[in-house]
Design goal:
mainly beta, Lipocalin, ten-stranded antiparallel sheet
Length: 143
């Protein structure tokens, strides 16, 4: 078992690198993410700027080893978070009007802590890989 002190800390402000990512949707103009990680709690704030310049803000809260509930638009996602070695796995189920949607997001940090990779391997977004780079600016996301 890996000690909590050795596990990655995802805290920081991150920006999506679209050139390095593989997305299952048309990319917006920009995706910024602010993460506060104090194990076992993690708060993820996402700001998506569409090509017209309009921003959409979403906040997710997770707790390792417990189920959390988050709203995504009109839907509710039930989420469980766990560690698998050095990866944080965020597993969510959400009921839409037509079916249950399943996501299993694998988060990992590069050795230098400057690149956050979020990979969907075997879920409804299988093959999607989001690569985010740590922002050098302290005020990237104004929440």
């Amino acid at each position: 078992m890996i000690s909590a002190k050795l596990r990655p800390d995802f805290t920081g402000e991150w920006e999506m690198n679209f050139e390095k990512s593989i997305l299952r949707f048309s990319p917006p103009k920009r995706i910024l993410m602010k993460i506060e990680h104090r194990e076992p709690r993690l708060i993820q704030e996402i700001v998506v700027t569409n090509t017209g310049g309009t921003e959409q803000r979403t906040t997710f809260t997770y707790e390792t080893g417990a189920e959390t509930i988050n709203s995504i638009g009109p839907s509710t996602a039930r989420t469980r978070t766990r560690w698998e070695g050095m990866e944080l796995v965020i597993e969510s189920r959400m009921q839409t009007s037509s079916r249950e949607v399943y996501f299993q997001d694998h988060w990992s940090l590069s050795h230098d802590g400057r690149t956050l990779t979020m990979a969907h391997r075997d879920d409804d977004l299988a093959g999607q890989i989001s690569v985010l780079e740590k922002s050098a600016q302290a005020d990237t996301i104004n929440v």
